[in-house]
Amino acid sequence: MTGKRICVLYGGRSLERDVSLSTGHRVGRALESRGYQVTGIDVDESLVRRLIELRPEVAFIAMHGKGGEDGTVQELLEILRIPYTGSGVLSSIRAMDKVLTKHILKAGGIPTPPFHAFNDAAFREMGAKDTLQIIAEDLGLPVVVKPAAQGSALGIKFAAEARDLPAAMVSALSFDRKVLLERFVAGRELAVSILGTAEPRVLPIVEAIPQARHSYYDFESRYTPGETDFEVPAELAPEVAAEVERLALATYRALGCRGFGRVDFILDQANRPWVLELNTIPGLTETSTMPLAAQAAGLSFEDLVVAITESATL
Amino acid sequence: MDPAHVLITTGGQQAIDLVTKTFVDPGDVVLAEGPSYAGALTTFSTYETDVLHLPMDERGLDVEAVPDILDRLAADRKRVKFLYIVPNFSNPGGTTLSLERRHRLVEISAERELLIVEDNPYGILRYQGEPLPTLFTLDQSENVIYLGSFSKILSPGIRTGWIAAPAPILAKIAFGKQATDLCSSPLNQMFVHEFISSGVWREYVQRLIGIYRSRRDVLLSALADEFPPGSRWTVPEGGFFVWASLSPPVNTTDLLVKAIEENVAFVAGNGFYMDGQGTDSMRLNFSGSPEDRIQEGIRRLGSVIRDQMELYRALGMDG
Predict the structure, then answer these.
(1) What's the predicted TM-score (pTM) here?
(2) How much is the ipTM here?
(3) Beta carbons of B249 and A15 less than 8 Å apart
């Protein structure tokens, strides 16, 4: 199957551009080493024209965040009839929107921390500020405030008191018009990577242990080597690990994902797993968790990239 | 000036690094303007100094605050190694230290044996008012180290700057320089020598001054038209920067995310402080963009700020 013509799409204008460049270059090198004919495309307004010229057999989408992970580029590839890696348009839309994801999880009986969500119009046009006190009582403090559609922990704020909520809302609303307010669940941070479509395979669970000076697994600790320690596989009782794996697969299926993905969990002090979100294009950088999980399963980085590439479809 | 009192450095940034490396041990205090040049702060923090920001107003550093601060630090058994200052058109503040304050600062420095590191990369780029004497020329007590640079008047890529200092101080710094890179590129120094000795620099700098003055004027008038009431900004007599502050609770780090969506960038104010101040402020550069883009950029920024303020009102945060 080698010799296939692949376009690796990376970059773009999302705030996770640098992460995407790192993922994209690494993926390109891995594919070349396995004999594929690789053309890297730093995504800009010439994307469609270039894809029409190049007519690749597969587009490997190595983009994160807006444009690349939210169904936009997937829709373009559908129109151009170019098979692409990872989830389709609908799953991408569902997973990119943390609020939509959580509604789907809730409907599917998959545990996710209690939440409320608004768009800014609720504040600007309907006086939603007067609900903040109720929300604080309802969810319990502290509350985590997140932009609905932003990756890599950008724009996430913690409100320890109800009076901290408005400023946290403004920060989150800088990144997106829709924000999620979620009960803060203290515990261990687990990342579960999944590979495949019809018979998806759960890779070993990774625990991210940020160094003490980071209060959680934030942007800096995610992408600076040495800022986070990883435990692979995470030390979990067998029945806890089995439950986490079951929920990861249930999440992957509930959102209709394909190819690959990563489900992020918090394991609370009572060892109860809570699903936070699913990434349809998890990072594949030097410090990302999915390559670590693959390695623990006996798959080299190149093996992982080839498996993702060969699962590309329309 | 005796050439023995001058050391050529690889840009002004290396001069800051060498001075810091020479004088500072971890835990020592460096006094800096508030806000202060971010590149210097990075150097200070690399050498594990405690940076203490001093208050400023439209006439630059409030020098009368210095003696009290020195007393307080002495009482806390803190060792102050030097005061770092950009007296002309400071980066990012855009303010200029008044003549009266220059005299007073040099006096305090002599009385208290406070070493002053005077960084003057923008001094020649003056668009209005009369040039003021440097602290280095006013100083009679050998307590001022002067840092110069060709980055802003020839090219940043030429990486050529200099340190002028009393001989004993310079000898120590030269040790550090040798350990770092032996010497700065002689080829680049020859370029600079040609540029200066041929005299073309005078005409070139005059041309820069004309261009930058117009850009500054456009920025200042755009700010007056587009920024909401309650905003304040400095009026620089030269240099590259205007420092603008918005009414609380506007947070410029949040604002930047929205501004970038509109293709407008600034540097959020808290990057110019080591102590968390500056969240309501931003540094605006006017040297790098043509006038029509400055005009349009400020128009977009004004509308992002107003939108953000509306959101604060909707959240009940407008005080």
Answers:
(1) 0.85
(2) 0.75
(3) no
